[in-house]
Design brief:
Strand content of chain A: under 5%
Oligomer: heterodimer
Radius of gyration of chain B: 24 Å
Helix content of chain B: over 70%
Number of domains of chain A: 1
CATH topology of one domain in chain B: MetI-like fold
CATH superfamily of one domain in chain B: MetI-like
Strand content of chain B: under 5%
CATH architecture of one domain in chain B: Orthogonal Bundle
Shape of chain B: flat
CATH architecture of chain A: Orthogonal Bundle
Shape of chain A: flat
Order of helices and strands of chain B: HHHHHHHHHHH
CATH topology of chain A: MetI-like fold
Order of helices and strands of chain A: HHHHHHHHH
Largest sheet of chain A: none
């Protein structure tokens, strides 16, 4: 469940984050303003607040069921993914923006000099280079996302933290069970960091 | 123009930008209007639901104690985690393998575990084997979880701060005959404190946000828990969420602004070496439980 949450949320937040990053560097001032506002607001709210609100507010009061009105587990899962995507998109956006800033000015200037429009400059020249330089920061967001899936326990999604809580309450060996779950997370996150760190070094644009 | 991604707009581009702005505003307005309608439809805009927040009672009974709980846990965790983190960070830079390796293992271990698991574990452990009054237990558990996690994050910040200093500082210290301990305490640490300060302040935001975890999962009396009792009393779930979110935004925005002000001031200052870790290094690169991140390298 933890892995499933991570994968879906990672894909969603990557898409939304890229869109937000494009907004934040776009020539239209209003879009820039919206991107900045979104990032600043979302970054300063605890994820817990967002997730609990998605359950108590969105689902219970506004009746947002996300296509699963009867299946409570599925609905909780989708709400959790929605919250995780909305939250981490802000961080993906910030990472990407810093990546866009690392692309040398000359690249964008050259792209404009040969007559590419803003969209083309961003799509063909700047973003491909930016993505390669932000693999490590993005990996950090992914690791944080893996850890943050535990917050979904707050609305009863059966992932690692929920399981650990029930198991500890029912069994006697607290330390052993906790160590087991902790080890599980180390196994999930350490290789992610190592592999993506290695990939980041390999793919980094040599300058 | 500020950006290099596009030319200074000419007449045609200006017209296109205005057009795009208009389209964007219309879309945004439609979205807001739709949210407004839905809220109205579900009766969430009724004054009766918002009215409690204008009375002193809601603030003094629920929100203020909740905010105090949040800030108390955050401040205490920071105060304990900072020296622990400094010790771990310095230990990771030690020349002795038997100090460096265990410190590194501890830091990497606690950084890769969710804070929530640490809190749950601490809570259960205290419940079973420590003699703590049950109404105090959540507070201890929250602080324990936050301290374990954030001391390892701060250890990375300290390490990065010391490594950010020019190598000449260490060499000069050795050249005038200081020992390793003296170099650390009288040359490297004083300088790196100014380097690290913005990153440390930025980490406070993460701690403040993470206290909310303790509220929901183990029942520590902070802002989010205060919200649920308040909502249970006035039956205003949605307004209470919005008010609590705004409080969090205000508190964290104040901390972030302070951090970036500090960063700008330190960067401009002439007494430092010019190396400064920004608040974002802590929240993006340097890790965060409910923030992003994981590796301070």
């Amino acid at each position: 469940m933890t892995v499933k949450l991570t994968v879906f949320s990672a894909l969603g937040s990557l898409v939304l984050g890229t869109l937000l990053a494009a907004m934040r560097v776009s020539p239209v001032p209003l879009m820039r303003g919206f991107g900045t506002a979104y990032v600043n607001i979302v970054r300063n709210i605890p994820l817990t607040v967002i997730i609990v609100f998605s359950s108590l507010g969105l689902a219970d009061i506004f009746g947002v069921t996300l296509g699963a009105p009867d299946n409570f587990d599925l609905q909780g899962f989708r709400l959790a993914v929605l919250s995780l995507v909305g939250y981490h998109a802000a961080f993906v956006c910030e990472a990407l923006r810093s990546g866009i800033n690392t692309v040398p000015v000359g690249q964008a200037e050259a792209a404009r000099a040969i007559g590419l429009s803003f969209g083309q400059t961003l799509r063909l020249v700047v973003l491909p280079q930016a993505f390669r330089s932000v693999i490590v920061p993005l990996a950090n967001v992914l690791i944080a996302l893996t850890k943050n899936t535990t917050v979904a326990a707050a609305i009863g999604v059966a992932e690692a933290a929920t399981l650990m809580k029930t198991m500890i309450e029912n069994e006697a060996q607290t330390v052993l069970i906790a160590a087991f779950f902790a080890f599980g997370f180390v196994v999930l996150t350490l290789p992610t960091g190592l592999i993506l760190g290695w990939l980041g070094k390999r793919l980094a644009v040599k300058r | 123009m500020t950006s290099v991604l596009y030319d200074a707009p000419g007449p045609r581009a200006k017209r296109r930008n205005v057009l795009l702005s208009v389209v964007f505003v219309v879309l945004l307005a439609l979205l807001l209007w739709w949210i407004w309608l839905t809220m109205d439809d579900k009766g969430q805009l009724k004054w009766a639901l918002w009215e409690p927040f204008t009375t002193a009672d809601a603030w003094s009974t629920y929100l203020w104690p909740g905010l105090v709980g949040t800030l108390k846990a955050a401040a205490l965790s920071m105060v304990i985690a900072l020296p622990l983190g400094a010790v771990l960070g310095i230990a990771r830079l030690s020349d002795h393998r038997w100090v460096r390796v265990p410190a590194g293992a501890v830091v990497e271990f606690f950084r890769s575990i969710p804070v929530l698991l640490l809190m749950l574990f601490a809570n259960e452990l205290y419940a079973k084997s420590a003699n703590i009054a049950s109404e105090d237990r959540p507070f201890y558990a929250v602080v324990t979880g936050l301290v374990l996690y954030n001391s390892s994050v701060l250890a990375e910040v300290v390490r990065a701060g010391i490594l950010a200093l020019p190598k000449g500082q260490t060499e000069a210290a050795y050249a005038i005959g200081l020992r390793k301990g003296q170099t650390m305490t009288s040359i490297l640490l004083p300088q790196s404190v100014t380097v690290m300060l913005p990153a440390i302040v930025g980490q406070l935001v993460v701690i403040v946000k993470d206290t909310a975890l303790g509220g929901v999962m183990i029942g520590y009396g902070e802002l989010l828990t205060a919200r649920s009792t308040l909502a249970a009393n006035y039956a205003n779930v949605v307004p209470s969420f919005i008010v609590v979110a705004v409080i969090f935004i205000v508190v964290n925005f104040a901390i972030t602004s302070f951090a970036s002000w500090l960063e700008g001031r330190l960067r401009r200052g002439k007494k430092t070496t010019g190396a400064v870790l920004s608040a974002n290094d802590a929240t993006i690169a340097g890790t965060a439980a409910t923030g992003a991140g994981g590796g301070g390298e």
